[in-house]
Each structure stands twice: as C-alpha cells, then as structure tokens.
Amino acid sequence: MKSHRGKRELLGNRKAFVTVYMLFASLVMLPMVGLAIDFSVLYSVKGRLQLACDAGAIGAGGLVQRSTDVTDPTTNANLRNAVQRFFNANFSPAPWRASQLSYNSSITQDNTTKVRTIFVTASYNVPMLFMRVLGVNNSTVAAQAIAKLRFVNLILVVDRSGSVTRTGSGTLTNPQIIQNALNTFVGDSTTSVFKNGRDVIGMVTFGGNYNLDYAPSTNFQTSSPNITTAINNITFNTNNSTNTGEGLYQGWYQLTQLSQAGALNVIVLITDGRPSAFTGQFAVDSGSPCTNRTDKLGVVSSSVTNPFPPPSNRTKRGVLNFLYAGVTDETQTWVSNSAGCSFVGDSSRVTNDIHTIPTNVGPQDHKTGTSVPSVTSFTAGSGYYAATSDLTDAVQVRYTAFNYAFNVAKAIRQDATNAPVIYCIGLNFDTSAYPSEEPLDADFLATIANDPNYRSTGKPSGVYQAGQTPGKYYDVSYSGLESALQDIAGQILRLSAH
C-alpha cells in the first residue's frame, strides 16, 4: 500500500508541474501569437497601401504623358486629382479600420531632360488587436511610388524602293497600304497614341538615295505641311534601289539633332527587301574617260532578283547622287563633276569608270559639325558578310550593301547617349506571284533590330547582341502592317513609362 500511495503522490506532483509549465508557457505564447496576428494585419495594410500608391502613379501615367504642359497650375492640379482617384479606387475603404495620417502627390518635369516624374506617398495609422496588452495601441505603415515618363522622339524610316510598287491587296496598292497605316499610326489624332505638342515625329525615306520627307517636329499633326502631307507625298518608283544603311543613318542623325538623351528615342524601319545599294566615295580608275577624275561621292547598286547571291556579272549601277533630287527616276540623278564619265546617260556602265569599293563606306551628308553621330564611316568588307573590294562583281556590291546597313544599325544600338530602339517591320509578299524577286531576309532584319526573342532555322540560338539596345522585328504581310504598328505603339508606351 505504501508503494501505491507513493506512486499516486509522484503522479500528482507531475500534474502540478505540467499545470505550472502550461501557465508560464501561455504567458509567453499568447503574446507571440498576438504579435504574429498584428504583424499580419500590418503586412496586409502595407501591401494594399503600396498597391494603391503604384496604381496612382502608373494609372495616371497615360494622362501625364499626353499632357502638353504639366507645369501649368490648373493642368497639374487636375492630374494630381487623377492620381488620387486611382489611389482611392485601390484603397477604399481602408482595411482593418486604418485611418489616414498623410497623403501627397506631385508631378514635375525636368527642364533639361524633359522627363516627367509622378511621386505618390501615403501613411496610415493601423489599430492593433492584441498588442494593446503591451501598451501598443496603434502602428504606422507608409508607402511611396515613383513613375518616370519620357517624351517619345520617333523617326520613321520608310523604304520607297521599286519592289514596293508591286500590285497590292484588294483595291489598294502597296504604297497606299503603307501610307494609310502610317497615317493611322502618327497622322490621325483620333487613332495615334503620340501626342501633338509633346512627342516628336519625323520621317526619312530611302531608295538608292535618301530624303528627309518630314523634319522632326512636336507639331507633327498641326503644322503646315504636317506628317500626313509628307506621308501622302512619298514617291515610290520602280527604278529605286534599296540603300537601307543610308536610310538608317539619316534617321539616326535626325534623332541626334534633337539632343534629348532623356527621351525615348525610336527608329521604325519599314522595308520589303534586302539591301542592294550603298553610299561611298569612289576613286576613279586611271582608264576612265571621266574629264574630272576626282573621287565621286554617291551611290552604287546592283540589281535585285533571284537568286541571291547573284551571279557576278549581274548589272551594277552608279555613281548616282546620294541626295534625293525630287525626281521619280533616281537612276538619272548623276553626281557632280561627272562630265565624260561612262555612267552618264547609262548608269549600268559604272564599271568602265570605277573598279574598287572603298575600304570604308558611309554617308556623304551630315559628316561635319559637333552634334552628328560619333560614327561617320563604316567598314565595307565585314559585318554581316565577308566582302572584297571588287566593284565589278555584283556579289561584292550586294554584300557591301548588307554590311553598310548592318554596321550602321550596330552603331545606332551602341549609342549610349541616345539609346535608340530599332523596330524593324519586314513586309512579306506572295513569292509565288513574284518568283523572280528575292524574298525577305528575316534573319538579317531581326539582327538589325537586335531582337532578343528571335529564333529561326538559320539562327536557332538567336541574333541578340548583349550590351546593345534591344529592339523588335515584325515579319508581316502588307495587310498586317497596321497591326504591327499598333503593337509597336504599345511597346513604345510601355518603355516611355518606366
């Protein structure tokens, strides 16, 4: 019996110990549980508050971007009201009985870079549930958001080469399809996302030579002439070749003249073919009949037709004026000081006068001054193809045309000051209807754009070059041009609000 009584006493002592242990544990655990619950409440309110600040900054971004003058007091007040409406829509009613301590927003513009900044900040007082037992009745949470909006400087670089004049789709010719799509993209205020009076739009066209059809302007829809006038007056002609490098360079040059490093600088290249011409300074051969044997500054091209690469003896043409002379037949615009030269009157006889492709090719315009692009000449023999200097060989002429465009695009993508983005639209056509014409080189055009997402059979690992500004390539038919431009507009809006 003593043994049983001892056991009962021992068990009773253990129960007492457990009771005391649980009592002390509850004194520790309950505040910890309460603290965890209260912290969860604070975390929830903080998340909602940050979401509301982000919504205010980003939601009103479109309105701020399209405003011509955010420094005007009335405009600025209206825009800040819009910011608060977006904020309230995402934080009303306030969760967990939180009460506002502060709210503020500001919309400013940097006078130098023209970058607009939306700043939103708010703080709220949150009642505690369990921490009151420790004397903590309320806690404060705060959040802020910043959105920076850039002007858009956009240069259209449009191919007006002969291949564009093919029969179009339905009742519209291909030039009309291009012009209608461009007017929807930038010309029509009811359809364009670009804001007249704020964004800058310009246009360069190219065949064998280039033309500044519309100088960059903030009043691109309301000036006289305006961008629509320029688009409708583009001269497409069957005798134009394709000097893609010159078009890209002159578009780049126009961006550099704006000198707005804070803006989103964009080039939209629209082309339907492969490069066939390049600009250079050509040395006259000693056997040439030219009266004046000074170097000829102009354009040399080779005919475009299947197959590619072409036979060496395919027609070469030159030396043509690199400046657009306002005529429809650019093959008759001879360079100056060309008296007696074989190519005068028949540009296909250029090889009677010139035999050598210069080591460096490139623009003969816009090469002087302090505000031009940092690169004004480009390697002829390397880049996209390995080429020789034999101008009598059509293969080398075509390869050089590719290299010129490739090296210009590379220089644009390496422009750290302006950081231009190249969007490239390749206009495909029905090759069965035009079996003699060369199809698009999608790999080349995607390389020009430096599209990080492009893959093909020929480029399974892609074309993207790290350290160079990425762009995007669109492979569409003429009927898909407008949709491609709409997508580009969306891409630009996303990049300009960051």
Q: In short, what is this structure?
A:
This protein is an alpha/beta fold and 498 residues long.
Index terms:
single chain; elongated; three-stranded antiparallel sheet; 14 strands; alpha/beta; 498 residues; Rossmann fold; 20% strand; 9 helices; 2 domains
Secondary structure elements and pairings:
Blueprint: H1 2-59, H2 61-66, H3 73-90, E1 99-109, E2 116-127, E3 138-149, E4 152-159, H4 174-187, E5 200-206, E6 210-217, H5 227-232, H6 244-258, E7 264-271, E8 277-282, E9 296-302, E10 316-320, E11 360-361, E12 378-379, H7 394-413, E13 421-428, H8 442-449, E14 472-477, H9 481-496
Parallel strand pairs: 4-5, 4-7, 7-13, 13-14
Antiparallel strand pairs: 1-2, 2-3, 5-6, 8-9, 9-10, 11-12
Helix pairs in contact: 1-3, 4-9, 6-7, 7-8
Walk me through what this model shows.
With 498 residues, the protein is α/β, with parallel strands linked by helices. The chain has two domains: 2-149, no CATH class; 152-496, Rossmann fold, CATH 3.40.50. Helices cover 32% and strands 20% of the residues. It contains nine helices and 14 strands. It has helices at 2-59, 61-66, 73-90, 174-187, 227-232, 244-258, 394-413, 442-449, 481-496, and strands at residues 99-109, 116-127, 138-149, 152-159, 200-206, 210-217, 264-271, 277-282, 296-302, 316-320, 360-361, 378-379, 421-428, 472-477. The protein has a six-stranded mixed β-sheet, with helices on both faces. A hairpin with a 6-residue loop joins β1 and β2. α1 (2-59) packs antiparallel against α3 (73-90) and α7 (394-413) runs parallel beside α8 (442-449). The longest helix has 58 residues, at 2-59. The termini are far apart.
